[in-house]
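pls ignore typos typing on phone
manganese (II) ion + seq
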Amino acid sequence: MTASAAHSAAEGPTPTPPDDPIAAAEDRSMITVQQHIFEQQRHHFPAATGEFSWLLSGITLATKRVQAKVRRAGLTNLLGTEGEVNVQGEVQQKLDVYANDVLIQALSSRDCVGVLASEENDHPMAVARNQMNAKYAVVFDPLDGSSNIDVNVSVGTIFSILRLPGHSHGGDRTDDLLQHGYRQVAAGYVCYGSSTILVYTAGMGVHGFTLDPSIGAFVLSHENMTMPERGKYYSVNEAYRDSFPPEYRTYLDRLRTGKFGDPYGLRYIGSLVADFHRTLLKGGIFLYPPTSSHPEGKLRLLYEANPIAFIAEQAGGMASAGSERVLDIKPTSIHQRTALIVGSKSEMDEFERCINGRG
Ligand code: AHG
Ligand code: MN
Ligand code: MN
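k done
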């Protein structure tokens, strides 16, 4: 008999120390992402039909499948490239293709989804059977940071949900997707890191749910997330520094040399989802400026910058494309790229002063 079994037999169950945080967390009643959305809708939109929750359940199902594959990728011949180049001119990884297929499959079975657009596909996809009544379009980056996958570094999925115009004419749906970012209905990401976390906003704050692998559910772990007013790190691929516009170089110098208080440290993972997730939790600033090889910036407006900007603003931060607010950009093509500077209010105010030559 083990020591603890002996204890149970003699004295009943082992008492839980009152200050044991793990036991306390497990005792707390669990709120799943579905439950949370349902309760938020009941509170804010009592007339809601539940379609939106059903749509989000497509995203949680697909991302659970993706995370399961990511966790086993080294065992299942899923590392490495697919041998194809996507519309962005980037080499597709096998997991890019898998994640894309799984999201398309899960979302096209939701009646309320009429159009899908992915970083990995040249054109928007109309979901044929839903053309008459569908209310929503979903645009997504199925696997963000996928060049990191072979080396066991965090990757993610990013999504944005748009309302479709009521008068859809069928045919090419590109115009239906070229909406300002401020019109997003909801946006979120899933970060496949040391744990899997889903962060989303539907315009009523930002909420985070950690996947509990023992029960297969995303459980509320971070309610009403707010970005700290200021942080300690900046995040940028500084190897491109010489090709950044001069005002960006000035700003980075000021961060590094302590012109805004203590000198900043640098953190750069190379997966936007992971770099942003740290910035959301710890504050600071992430920058992907224009460079000589990507004069418009590298990140994609619809799949990356807009959803991240929506989340940042909802959490009390800010997001800029250099000369304007990201969410105010009117897209002209679905794969459009943009510069992205996103972070805490203090760092963003200083950035804007610097970029406008005011300090
Ligand atoms: P994706 O894997 O979806 O193409 O995105 C990669 C992006 C983004 O996650 C990251 O912030 C950026 O590329 C890194 O680019 P650099 O290697 O140029 O720094
Ligand atoms: Mn990406
Ligand atoms: Mn991607």
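The chain has a mean pLDDT of 90. The pocket of manganese (II) ion (ligand 3) is lined by residues 96, 119, 141, 143-144, 146 (CB under 6 Å). more later
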